[in-house]
Amino acid sequence: MSPTLSECIRKFFCLSLLTILALSPLKSSDSLAVDSTNQAKVRQFVIFSAAAYGVALYGLNEAWYDDFPRSEFHFFNDNHEWKQLDKAGHFYSAFHLSNTGIHLLKKAGVPQKKAHFWGGMVGIMILTPIEILDGFSDEYGASWGDIIANVTGSTVAMGQHMLWNEVRIKPKFSFKSTSYASYRPNVLGDGFHEQILKDYNGQTYWLSVDLYAFMKSKKFPKWLNIAFGYGAQNMVYANDLQNEVQGFDSYRQYYLALDPDLSHIQSKSKFLNTCLYLVDLIHLPAPALEYNRVQGWKFHALSF
User: Fold this and answer.
1) How far apart are CA 270 and CA 276, in angstroms?
2) Parent domain of 228
3) Are residues 172 and 259 in the same domain?
């Protein structure tokens, strides 16, 4: 299965919902006790988010799935495709949706345990209906791999809040344009705006580790993380056999890089804080060490 519009919609859909949730009309209140619940704010959050999600889901169904034949609910095994970068994308989306849910419920005054659990479920609750729509589409099919990646992403966000009451390890995303899209622009994207969603060759997913949070050392910069990255190259087709037949030797890439952490920057402006939060979803260019089986070890002065 190719990374066509269904997969791209999930990425765009999740980024849009993150923005909507981050801008939703919730403000922290000094008068709220740690263990009290501000019912009005919680109700406001639920209504606002549910309405935005319902409209977006209806639009997704009308704009995309109605163009393809429907079928009985079924599964499709795509775990061997695209070197599992699509699964990294599901993990990434679920994590950040859940992390945002937890953050907003805490700001609304929901007790921590409830905020951690119900906020942590946000990623699963948002992404599961999209997987169900795939399952009823003759063109696609629900994917157990996608579902597992969604649950894992939400669980990792929830677990960190339960364990540390903060996020110390978070996924990030980066992209650089490649030449592979020119071979199959209908699949890998025609133009940069499509390639960033469709071309897995240009995508890298990172796990950014907040070393300061673990070490609590004043000698280590609070804003500097270490990130472990994963990507792949030479993927014009979904699986290795197809690529090999067409003369493409697909391979994985592994990275170790520095990573600026913008989450430590706070201002009095809700808008600026939201912008910093959204930018922090991306791995900014930084020095990195790469390993792959074709070229061995490589150093990048700036890795995207």
Assistant:
1) 10
2) 168-304
3) yes
